[in-house]
Amino acid sequence: MADLLKLGTVVADAIVPGNLSAAAQYSEYTQGGLHSGKLNLAAIYEITLERRQWGMQASTVTGETYELIQGLVSTNLADNGNWRLKPGGPGNGGPDVVQTTGTSTEDVMSQDAVTKELAKKVATTDPRLSDPRTPLAHTHTASNITDFTQAAGTVADSRIGVQKGQPGGLASLDGNGKVFLSQLPSYISDVQEYDSLAAFPATGTPNVIYVAKDTNLNYRWTGTQYTKIGDGQGVESFMGRTGNVVLTQADIDAFLVDLKARVLEAENDLVRLETDILGVDNRVDTIEGLIPANASPTNKLVTVADLSSGGGPTTTMQFNATRTVGGINAGDLVIVDNNASGQALKLILAPANAPSAGLSAQNPVRQPGASTAVVLNYSANKGTNDIATVVVAGQTVPPPSGTVNTSTAANTDTNFTMIVTDNKGMQAGASAQVLYRPLRFFGALSVDPLTLSDGDLSVLLRGLPAEFSDARQQTRSITANNEYMVFAGRAAGWAGAQYEVNGLSNNAFQGKTFNFTNSEGFTESFYVARGGQRLVGTFTGTVK
Fold this sequence. Notes:
- It is a single chain.
- The chain has helices spanning 41-50, 111-119, 155-163, 186-189, 249-290, 304-309, 343-349, 454-462, and strands at residues 6-9, 28-30, 33-35, 57-59, 65-68, 83-85, 129-131, 134-135, 191-194, 209-212, 217-221, 226-228, 237-238, 241-242, 316-320, 333-337, 356-361, 365-366, 373-381, 387-392, 395-397, 401-407, 414-422, 427-436, 439-445, 466-468, 474-490, 499-501, 504-505, 510-517, 523-530, 535-543.
- By secondary structure, it is of the alpha+beta class.
- A hairpin with a 4-residue loop joins strand 10 and strand 11 (217-221).
- The protein is flat, with a radius of gyration of 59 Å.
- The two termini are 89 Å apart.
């Protein structure tokens, strides 16, 4: 800036008389441009900073003339990125001022010419410009457009015609002003008919209505199955007819005739039922006549002696069949000849009963490590026929009862069976199990179980109440006298256990896994949990 002592020439459209700042009012505006003889440094800086235009020139005190070759970035004339030494300028053999809008670089312009040129330019304060070179964005409203018409053949009308019936365009109308069917979605017009629901495609298409012609019901595909359209609670048929049924007097008359016939048929059934009941009564009377007066009230079956006294073992019995069964039709005369033991009547009046069986194991649930020896208790009772054989755990034993000695594999659950067979081949069965289960313990301890060795802890736990179980879930009433509430059991399944005391969640429980040795001498992994503090009184403890 120190080199910029006087301004040579400024382009005409950058000089607006009266718009220079107070600092630039010392300039002399004459024909040919702005002479800088009276400009001070502040005026030079302001003019060069605000009038950034190609064609601006400036002179140094030594007479060289520089020309601005691009938008001003630097006011330093030595910065050749913005300034270029102009041949023929003041000090270079040229005039003091050049005019950049004429036909020659040496043409001068009068003050009037400059004013006229300025009048043709747009003021830098015009709101449509951000600066003299860059237009601002702007919009137009419908009221700004005055040359648009809707007459046939216009560009706008042609554009509408191109968009008709096109994707993302406009719907076409037929001669009645309605949308063409081809332009409607498929679910409005796509209906497919099949003989039945079973005949529908395995995979349906969304937005298609499927009609089952056998039921006249409509369905749609949900993506996974066919769903009936409607709530499915309506009447699908009436009096054997489907569709839009209109009830007439003839329909009512026909219904009443049919109803009357059904009532008559029901009455006939009742008459037949009464006849059957009467026949049963008569047969009961006949049977009772065969029972001797001194027969036991708990056993009124006909005996061989009764048959003999009533006509002998060859007495022929006959009766009319009342229903079709076993090749005998209702109304047929059925004749039964007794054998010497009256077997025919026995089969009719006293069908054979099967035998019965009972089996149990001593010490059925035991701790791991316990003895594998098992003693089974059995009983076999005859039914109608005598017992032929009794087999328990693969051993044939005598009826009616006794014991069988057998065994299991070590620590293995075992199921034992029993079969009783009578002399007519009728059978009965029974079974018994021996299970190996650990004990789980609960109660109160005066010492902290977490500080004890595995052996000492095993001894203390064996003295607490216990029961056979693999599960940890339990609820117990525990009485403590300045003691810890304690739960213990097989380690498997105790991870993540939750505890409650008197129904309230308790997060103070702590525990550890250790090797527990049971009363049978068998050792396995156990888990012991104890409450966070000693208790006095009776409490309800729950493990979840």
